[in-house]
């Protein structure tokens, strides 16, 4: 009898976790209006930028962020693709931060005429993989918003 109860409980958990987005809500981007962007050198010839993505877990349960893949845009300029492989434990109803590091072509960015002193449109779309216990799920994420950039050179 205990084995049947365990199987039923596991099936119920799987059904809840894998059912539509109504039960597992997608984390919400909570990027500040003034977004800190750190520019640094990976090598003497190659620069990179780092942004701390702030998100909110609207679910009543915690999960583990396992990985993500994003394509980022700054206005109409494609900044690049990022693979995130940081593992982060996220509590229920909590803010969490995901570090995003990418190596855009700064020469081409400089030729676009985008005014980085004014607000710019930042957008991204991609996927993130999260898990609760043994159960994993990949969900689509996307964001678009206007932000001022606080550029910091290191």
Automatic annotation (TrEMBL):
Gene3D superfamilies: 2.60.40.1820. PROSITE patterns: PROKAR_LIPOPROTEIN. SUPFAM superfamilies: LEA14-like (SSF117070). This is Late embryogenesis abundant protein. The lineage of its organism: Bacteria, Pseudomonadati, Bacteroidota, Chitinophagia, Chitinophagales.
């Amino acid at each position: 009898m205990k084995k049947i109860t365990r199987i039923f409980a596991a099936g119920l958990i799987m059904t809840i976790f894998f059912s539509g987005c109504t039960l597992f809500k997608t984390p919400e981007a909570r990027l500040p209006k003034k977004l800190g962007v750190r520019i640094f050198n990976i090598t003497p010839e190659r620069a990179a930028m780092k942004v701390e993505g702030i998100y909110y877990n609207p679910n009543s349960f915690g999960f583990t962020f396992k990985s993500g893949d994003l394509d980022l845009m700054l206005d109409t300029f494609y900044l690049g693709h990022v693979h995130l492989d940081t593992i982060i434990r996220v509590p229920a109803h909590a803010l969490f931060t995901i570090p995003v590091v990418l190596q855009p072509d700064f020469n081409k960015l400089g030729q676009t005429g985008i005014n980085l002193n004014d607000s710019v449109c930042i957008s991204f779309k991609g996927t993130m993989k999260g898990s609760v216990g043994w159960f994993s799920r990949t969900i689509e994420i996307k964001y678009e918003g206007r932000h001022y950039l606080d550029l910091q050179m290191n």
